[in-house]
Amino acid sequence: MGSLKPIDDATTQQGFMATRVDELINWGRKNSLWPMPLGLSCCGIELMAMIGPKFDLARFGAEAARFSPRQCDLMIVAGTLTWKMAEAARVIYDQMPDPKWVIAMGVCSSSGGMYDSYSVVQGVDMILPVDVYVPGCPPRPDAVIDAIMKLQKKIEREQPLKARLSGDNLDHGIGSKTFVRAPNTAVSTRGSHAVLPPGESRP
Amino acid sequence: MSTLERVQSALAAIGAKPLASREGTPFFSIEPAHVREACRILRDVCGFETNTFVTAIDHFPAEPRFELVWQFLSVQHNDRVRLSARVSGEQPHVDTIGDLFPGTQYSERECFDMFGIVFDGHQSHAGGLKRLLMPEGYDHFPLRKDFPHQGIEPDKLYNAWFKQRFERHEAEHADV
What we know:
The complex is a heterodimer of chains A (203) and B (176). Chain A has 203 residues and is α/β, with parallel strands linked by helices. Chain A has helices spanning 9-14, 21-30, 43-51, 83-95, 106-111, 141-156, 160-165; strands at residues 35-39, 74-78, 101-105, 132-134. Chain A has a domain at 35-165: Rossmann fold, CATH 3.40.50.12280. Chain A is built from seven helices and four strands, in the order ααβαβαβαβαα. Chain A has a four-stranded parallel beta sheet with strand order 1-2-3-4. The model of chain A is unreliable at 171-198 (pLDDT under 50). With 176 residues, chain B is α/β, with parallel strands linked by helices. Chain B has one domain: Beta Polymerase, domain 2. Chain B has four helices and seven strands; from the N terminus they run H-E-E-H-E-E-E-E-H-E-H. In chain B, the strands form two sheets. In chain B, strands 1-2-5-4-3 form a five-stranded mixed beta sheet. Chain B has a two-stranded parallel sheet with strand order 6-7. The longest helix of chain B is centred in the last third of the chain and has 19 residues, at 154-172. The model of chain B has no long low-confidence stretch (mean pLDDT 84). Classes of the chains: A alpha/beta (203), B alpha/beta (176).
């Protein structure tokens, strides 16, 4: 029988629920996002308001902001990313354990915004794979909460077990040769571990 | 004895010429080779303990192209004085005054970063002259007049930057 065992009486008496492993994992992941608050400018203030009691991100299970990237799985780039800061941002992203997601909060991090300048990264998708872009300058906390809900919907569609069994390389870190600039769409389909159909390789 | 006269007589030895200054601050033009000597005189003879800033003005396309400006403050005399020197070339060189006025090290780094002026003998953190505001590996000097204000090929900057990181990573993990 391999690792499969018949259910004993005790289990059946206590009751059980049938589900797919993917569903279970995704359910856990999407409801316990731990944000890495990369507050680089004024967007950071809205980010704090979002986590605080008035907007209460805890309703969506994502209020546990940690300042160590080792404990985070959701990077929220809130504000203007300069080229000087770009390397630090990428190092923080690399230090976050998989699976991980990125929200570009505000126009500065989405596209450079009004800083069409030599010193500003014209969109963090030049250095990070972004999952959700949030427009606004700065966006209201509601908008970022909406982005988190969109991200939760995206996480629901993922197939972590299939990715693990097919040996898909989840690592998009520093040594990854697969990292390219993500397409600049409203909701990018490229995540840190989006699963591709068999036989298709990453761009 | 006014500040202008006092400083002028002290700087006469190196041939400093007084320049017109709009708000009345004593302003002298010196030769780039005499920078250290002038600063030493200002500090030791005239009592200017502090350097306020080191900066440059790009007079492109006029030659000599760059005008370097140093401003000094004397707290004990409540005086300010400004020095100016013209340097030319794509990579102009001038002596550092970082050892005379330690606070100028950041100003000199910024000036190098923005204008590409090399301060010979600069030794902040003993690592020599490094960029301050722009990342390492950036090839351009943004405050020069011939630099486009939107920047030059950010994609190229990113690619070079990522390639550098990738190669460093490969080198570090070569034995694995």
